[in-house]
């Protein structure tokens, strides 16, 4: 089950309200983001700390080895996030 802890932002230097989609969408990995899954999560409309959810949803175990520029990642919908967290 998704909890408030999953959507909390810890860095007080910025405020990001995560975007939860009713259906899945995609984000393309840019060259400068290939080694930073947190930046990819931000571009996907999620919180920086939710990069692990994004990777888990896409079946990525090691982002450093498995992310390549130009790769398309599926962004989970809110129902997908709830399913992942169970």
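^ Assign residues to that structure.
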């Amino acid at each position: 089950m998704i909890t408030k802890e999953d959507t909390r932002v810890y860095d007080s230097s910025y405020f990001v309200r995560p975007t939860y989609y009713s259906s899945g969408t995609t984000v393309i990995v840019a060259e400068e983001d290939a080694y930073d899954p947190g930046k990819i999560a931000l571009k996907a409309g999620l919180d920086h700390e939710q990069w692990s959810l994004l990777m888990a949803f896409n079946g990525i175990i090691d982002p450093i080895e498995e992310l390549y520029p130009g790769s398309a990642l599926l962004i989970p919908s809110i129902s997908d996030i709830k399913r992942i967290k169970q």
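The chain has a mean pLDDT of 76.
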